[in-house]
Structures are given as structure tokens and as C-alpha cells.
Write a structure and sequence with these properties.
globular
Length: about 350
């Protein structure tokens, strides 16, 4: 549990203020107005006058934002519903009590939620505020983008049963997510894995659960919480998308393709590619299908597994919840496990 030590009312951290949520909405409105003004003032410009790299940067960054934005909002909406309208007792009753079995169960929740990795970040934050432990939320966060019906169907449509890619992705994602959850469950103080600001918000939720509020108050709090989560997630998404676009412009894909036939370098190259392009897990199978004839199956499986869990965009989104040290360890574990998975598939296939 995250800091479920219950401080006395009035002595603990305060609930995030309405002013913070309103400030987030104002910032969002200003950004939207600025984008609209930019679109109007540049409507008559000749885009070909811009350097190719600038156009590529704008196109790639914008495509990542457009692709991710619906899932971010969907994830925030689901997290608000879970946080405000799902009773604590119900969650406690349906979840197993054994820690490892709880992690296994929550890693399969993604089967019911067709949300890609971007939307799972606010949902995982909602789970932690609801009382799930940090390792359990991590297990869900990593497993859900792979073990959701849309990802499974698109991967099957792209590769069928060929070379064990579909099975490797599903089984590998499940095992890696639970491995990460188990390793972080060994931490003596899981609350230290969280940023101080988010940890404080969790302690406030423990004192006054949102689900216990009266109807009108609950709706107002839910609206403010939506604004707060939106103002936290959107800047991280925009920064992460811009970084992904900048790296893609500077990275030579010809070099990656040249490494594709080597059983070791093919895995590493596609993991780097997955980290850089930050493509949604619901559609990444169709993207990597074009590389299927160039790269070995282990590289493709590593791309589909590692990229669904970790990429540039996800790093910035997860930083809203976890400390830098936590993220470094998380990325290292997932990367090493994905490497082993890719090598193993190349040996077997």
C-alpha cells in the first residue's frame, strides 16, 4: 500500500487546490488558442519553404500527439470513474489477498480495457490512489498495453501465428510485467518510489476517499480531478512527443536496417527504434510488419514488447508519478528482460 498511514485531518497534506486545476485549464486553453492562431496565420504559407528536417520534426511530433491524445483522455476518464465511483470494498473483495496472485490478476485487467500505454498511466495513478500498491500498479502499467484485446487482434492480423511473434509478445509481456512487480515488491518503502507530490495526493485520498463523498461534491471533485490530471499529463505528452520527433529526425533508419540480419544487433536495433518512435501499442504491429522481412523474429518480438512498455513519451508521462531513480531501475529491468526475450526467440525460431 502506498503510504496508507492515515494522518490526522488538517495535519496532513492538503487536497490539490481548485486554483491548481483552474490554472491547468487556463494553460490548456492558452495552448489551444496559440495552436489555432498559428494555424490561421500560417494557412497561406508554403510548407515546402521550410527545411525538410523541420517539416519532418513537426509532422512526426504532431502525429505522436494526435495518436496518443484520445487514449490519454480515455485513461483519465476511466481513472476518474474508478477513483470516485468504484467502492473501495468492492475492489478489496474481488482482488486476491496473496501478493503475487494480486499482481497476476491486475496484470490481466488490461484484457478488459482497450487502452494503449498512454492511457494506462493516468489509470495506474488512479489505482494507486485507490489503495493498490506501487508494484501492483507497475505490473498493470506494463502488462495492460500488451494484454488488451485491440493489441492482441492487431498483432494477430499483422503476423498471424508466424514465428511465434504473437505468443512471444503476449507471454513475454505478461512475464516481464510480473517480474518487475515482484522485484519492486521487495522494496522496504514502496512510497519512496513515488514523486513527493503524487505521494502526498495519495495520503490525502487515504484520509478522505473520493468514493465516500456526497453526490454533488463528488461530481465537482471529479471535474477538478479531471482538470488536474489533464494539466499533469498533457505537458508531459507534448514534451515526450517533441523529443521523439527530434530523435527520429536525427537517427538514420538505414543504419538500423543494416543491423537487422544479426541475431543480437537486430534485437538491440529494434528496441532502440521502439524507444525512439514511441508508437501506440495498438497499431505498432502494422508499423513493424514492414521490417518483418529484414529483421529476425526475435527483434520484432523485442520491438513489440519493449516498445509497448517503455519509450520516450512514456518516460515523460511516468515521471509525473515515479521518481527518477525508480524510472532508471524500471527501464533497466524491462530492457534486460526484453533483450533476453528477443535472443531466446531468435534461438528458437
Amino acid at each position: 500500500m502506498v503510504g496508507r498511514a492515515r494522518p490526522l485531518r488538517g495535519s496532513g497534506p492538503r487536497r490539490p487546490s481548485r486554483a491548481f486545476a483552474i490554472r491547468g485549464l487556463v494553460i490548456g486553453a492558452v495552448i489551444a488558442f496559440a495552436l489555432l492562431a498559428l494555424r490561421i496565420t500560417t494557412a497561406g504559407w508554403n510548407a515546402t519553404a521550410l527545411p525538410d528536417r523541420v517539416r519532418d520534426f513537426v509532422t512526426l511530433s504532431t502525429s505522436v500527439i494526435i495518436e496518443s491524445l484520445p487514449f490519454v483522455f480515455l485513461g483519465i476518464l476511466i481513472s476518474i470513474v474508478v477513483r470516485f465511483w468504484v467502492p473501495d470494498r468492492w475492489l478489496v473483495r474481488v482482488m486476491p489477498r496473496t501478493p503475487w496472485l494480486r499482481r497476476v490478476t491486475i496484470s490481466l485487467v488490461g484484457v478488459l480495457l482497450p487502452v494503449c500505454e498512454c492511457g494506462n498511466v493516468p489509470l495506474a495513478r488512479g489505482f494507486i490512489m485507490k489503495g493498490f500498491s506501487v508494484p501492483e500498479a507497475m505490473t498493470f502499467l506494463l502488462a495492460a498495453p500488451i494484454l488488451n484485446p485491440v493489441t492482441i487482434v492487431t498483432t494477430y492480423q499483422a503476423f498471424g501465428w508466424n514465428d511465434g511473434i504473437l505468443i512471444g509478445r503476449i507471454a513475454g509481456g505478461f512475464v516481464i510485467a510480473n517480474l518487475v512487480g515482484w522485484l519492486f515488491s521487495l522494496h522496504p518503502r514502496p512510497d519512496l518510489l513515488l514523486t513527493p507530490r503524487f505521494e502526498a495526493a495519495c495520503r490525502v485520498e487515504a484520509v478522505e476517499p473520493d468514493a465516500s463523498l456526497a453526490g454533488g461534491v463528488k461530481v465537482r471533485r471529479a471535474v477538478l480531478a479531471f482538470a488536474e490530471e489533464t494539466s499533469t499529463m498533457l505537458p508531459a505528452l507534448i514534451v515526450g512527443s517533441a523529443i521523439a520527433g527530434a530523435i527520429q529526425v536525427g537517427l538514420s533508419r538505414d543504419l538500423l536496417v543494416a543491423l537487422g540480419s544479426n541475431p543480437i544487433w537486430s534485437v538491440l536495433a529494434l528496441m532502440i527504434l521502439a524507444f525512439v518512435i514511441a508508437i501506440c501499442s495498438n497499431v505498432d504491429a502494422f508499423f513493424i510488419l514492414a521490417f518483418g522481412s529484414t529483421f529476425l523474429p526475435g527483434g520484432v518480438v523485442a520491438f513489440l514488447t519493449f516498445g509497448a512498455m517503455i519509450d520516450v513519451k512514456m518516460i515523460t508521462l511516468m515521471r509525473t508519478t515515479f521518481t527518477t531513480g525508480t524510472l532508471v531501475r524500471l527501464v533497466a529491468i524491462v530492457a534486460l528482460a526484453s533483450l533476453a526475450l528477443g535472443f531466446g526467440v531468435n534461438v528458437v525460431a
